[in-house]
Amino acid sequence: MSREQRRLQLLETAASIVRAGGTDGLTLAHLAEEAGVTKPIAYGHFGTRAGLLIALYQHFDARQAEAVRVALAEQVRTLEDAIAILSSAYVDCVLRAGPEFGAIASALAATEEMDDFRQALRDGYVELYRDALARFVAFPPQGAHALLTGVIGAADVLSQAAASHRMSRTEAIDALSRIILGALASWRQEDL
Q1: Digit-coded pLDDT (tens) for 76-103
Q2: For the chain, what is the domain count?
């Protein structure tokens, strides 16, 4: 097995451990045992428990970002089309990842390593959304980053609510679409 294949196997095994029992039981030793490898292999890939949690989060996040990019590659004619694609891709990816994504994010929330990492991820999504919406929205030099950061926060909260069955997928997507549309209303190209 190549190093990358082994890493993917370890990440999938770690996600399975979190799915079955939450993050409390996720240690590098337990991961090695469940994956059928030695502890040095698990430590060699992730270094620390926080390193493993960050790698898991990145694994889920990469899938989410790719889902958004793929969805945006489809024909987008209007701002509403772009918003619908962004909203459904974000919510659907979190739903596919399952509740373990939220558990991993919560476990990492208490670590210093995660602060900078999560901020970099948010900034990446802000740029992804800005790029996807730029042909429909005249973003001002000031304020756009803050507004889109709020949109990403809403996307996180609504997606987690749908993943934990506090609302339906449709409700989460509809609410997120309305939030984005409302937030961008004053900057629409056609209104300028």
Answers
A1: 888 999 999 999 988 988 887 766 666 7
A2: 2
Per-residue b or e along 43-72, where b marks 16 or more CB atoms closer than 10 Å to that residue's CB:
bebbeebbebbbbbbebbbeebbebbeebb
Same domain, 90 and 126: yes
Give the domain extent around 32: 1-47
Looking at the fold, whether 122 and 179 belong to one and the same domain comes out as yes
102 and 177, same domain (yes or no): yes
CA distance 11 to 57: 10
Amino acid, single-letter form, for residue 104: I
Q: Does one domain contain both 103 and 133?
A: yes
Supply 169's token pair: 């997928």
Cβ neighbours around 150 below 10 Å, total: 14
* Ranges of H-type helices in 22-98: 28-35, 39-46, 49-72, 79-97
Q: What is the pTM of this model?
A: 0.74
